[in-house]
Design goal:
- By secondary structure, the chain is of the alpha+beta class.
- It has one domain: Proliferating Cell Nuclear Antigen (Box).
- The chain contains six helices and twelve strands.
- The strands form two sheets. It has an eight-stranded antiparallel sheet, with helices on both faces. A four-stranded antiparallel sheet has the order 7-6-5-9.
- Strand 2 and strand 3 form a beta hairpin.
- The longest helix is centred in the middle third of the chain and has 12 residues.
- The protein is globular and about 55 Å long.
- The N and C termini lie far apart (65 Å).
- The relative contact order is 0.17.
- About 10% of the residues have low confidence.
Length: 231
């Protein structure tokens, strides 16, 4: 076997990615694996009932091996690496109009409140250049729950939005896309002009490296059409 095809991965991180949809859904989950030696990257694309999640795992390599592979910037977080072509190519067809980086723990707590709302089917995201910067709203048959992140919130790391942006997303798809919140340290949310939501979770792994779990969620067009008919 060609020695260049030998590489090492953190097994714990790999198993966490394989179980991103939950152990009970493994039988319904399909996987596509890509190894990109030039980027020192192991890319895992998982699909379950139409939901696609892409995980990018860094290889466990020595400092000398990293140097031999070229000028790799390990400190650049949330970069559009060549290995994420499936997601980035689709998402960047439209201009990004809002983005935010948050600590994953408060985002997980906020989303849990929305997900537990009885009869809620979708979550509305509102990005605002004024405070609150980010709002997430879910409505049930008799109750509405709104979670706001103010400009001064410790949960926000970075925020960029020039105009108010609103879009709704199916709750079940968000639940799948936010599964990695329990093991992530930071999460990066972006919306483009087509109202497509890009979600990227950064997960700390041994050797001081990070791996990333990515998901794309399209806006809930059926609910938007129903609201337009009611108007």
């Amino acid at each position: 076997m060609n020695p260049s095809n030998h590489f090492q991965l953190n097994l714990t991180t790999l198993l966490e990615c394989l179980n991103i949809f939950g152990a009970s859904n493994l039988a319904q989950t399909s996987a596509s694996i890509t190894y990109l030696p030039q980027e020192a990257c192991f890319c895992l694309v998982l699909e379950e009932n139409g939901v696609i999640v892409e995980c990018e795992l860094p290889l466990l390599m020595s400092h000398d091996e990293w140097a031999e592979d070229g000028d790799l910037d390990q400190d650049e977080e949330y970069s559009n690496t060549p290995s994420l072509t499936l997601f980035e190519t689709s998402f960047e067809l439209s201009r990004v109009v809002a983005k935010v980086i948050l600590h994953s723990e408060p985002l997980k707590n906020a989303f849990s409140e929305l997900a537990d709302l009885p009869s809620a089917a979708s979550v509305q995201f509102q990005f605002n250049p004024l405070s609150p910067s980010l709002s997430m709203i879910a409505s049930g048959e008799t109750t509405t729950c709104s979670i706001d992140f103010a400009n001064s919130s410790d949960a926000l790391i970075e925020f960029d939005c020039l105009n108010q942006i609103e879009a709704k997303y199916h709750l079940d798809l968000l639940k799948q896309s936010f599964r990695a919140l329990s093991i992530a340290s930071e999460s990066y949310l972006r919306i483009n002009e087509s109202s497509c939501l890009s979600i990227q979770h950064m997960i700390q792994v041994p050797e001081g490296q990070q791996c990333f779990v990515d998901a794309l969620v399209n806006a809930d067009e059926e609910e938007e059409e129903e609201e337009e008919r009611e108007e």
